[in-house]
Design brief:
- The chain is α+β, with helices and mostly antiparallel strands and about 220 residues long.
- Helix content is about 30%, strand content about 30%.
- It contains 6 helices and 8 strands.
- Strands 1, 2, 3, 4, 5, 6, 7 and 8 form an 8-stranded antiparallel β-sheet that branches.
- Helix 5 runs antiparallel to helix 6.
């Protein structure tokens, strides 16, 4: 990822928090024929595992991504990348106050991205899978008025469904984040973008405005 210093974010806690808020990650792997493949999967990021943590997910048994990983040399698991996307928004030049003075401005796009690099391992164990599914279910159902539980499904049906999936685990070896939030603009232009996006009807714009306010406020209070 192209990462100018003023857009770089290196705080592991902040990076994990951003990925947790947007858990549908894009898993990028090598295929058996030397190509690249991408899967879109909900992830658990477990920092309690030590270091930068472990990412866990599951895929359909019919998906060849786990077979490619399983066929690799166990001593050298395949390198992989998981991409998480945070809030993003188009930024119009009309939001910059500087446009009114010199017009030397162009459109851009503000966004948050987290790239987690590691090595992929396969878990074809019903108990491991059941634990992962239980944790993901509790997490994603927690805000619902009547949360669904795995125990709500018939035991034989659930067992048959678990037999159709395979678990993947990535030990995170390196993580990088890009918070492109107008850090390269003046304080006045930054505030113009925050105000403009905060007043938008699009919740994605408002999410970027909130993130921008958090990122740029410390920059503009430095002496």
């Amino acid at each position: 990822m192209y990462l100018p210093a003023h857009f770089a974010e290196n705080d592991p806690d902040l990076l994990q928090a951003a990925a947790t808020r947007a858990p549908l990650g894009m898993l990028v792997t090598h295929t058996a024929d030397g190509g690249l493949d991408a899967q879109h999967l909900p992830f658990e990021w477990d920092r309690a595992a030590g270091g930068l943590g472990v990412l866990r997910c599951h895929v359909a048994r019919a998906n060849p991504v786990w077979q490619d990983a399983a066929a690799a040399n166990p001593a050298q698991p395949l390198p992989t990348l998981v991409v998480f996307r945070g809030p993003d928004a188009y930024v119009s030049p009309s939001l910059y106050p500087s446009k009114q003075t010199h017009h030397r401005v162009v459109p851009t796009w503000n966004y948050v991205a987290v790239h987690a690099h590691g090595r992929i391992a396969v878990h074809d164990d019903p108990r491991w899978l059941r634990g992962l599914l239980a944790r993901l279910t509790r997490r994603f159902e927690a805000a619902r008025p009547a949360p669904w539980k795995m125990g709500d499904a018939p035991a034989d049906y659930l067992e048959a469904q678990i037999a159709q999936i395979v678990g993947l685990e990535i030990v995170v070896e390196r993580v990088e984040g890009k918070w492109k939030m107008s850090q390269n603009r003046t304080a006045a232009d930054q505030q113009g973008v925050v105000d403009g996006l905060a007043g938008s009807a699009d919740p994605r714009d408002r999410a970027v405005a909130e993130t921008m306010a958090q990122v740029t406020a410390p920059l503009n209070t430095r002496v």
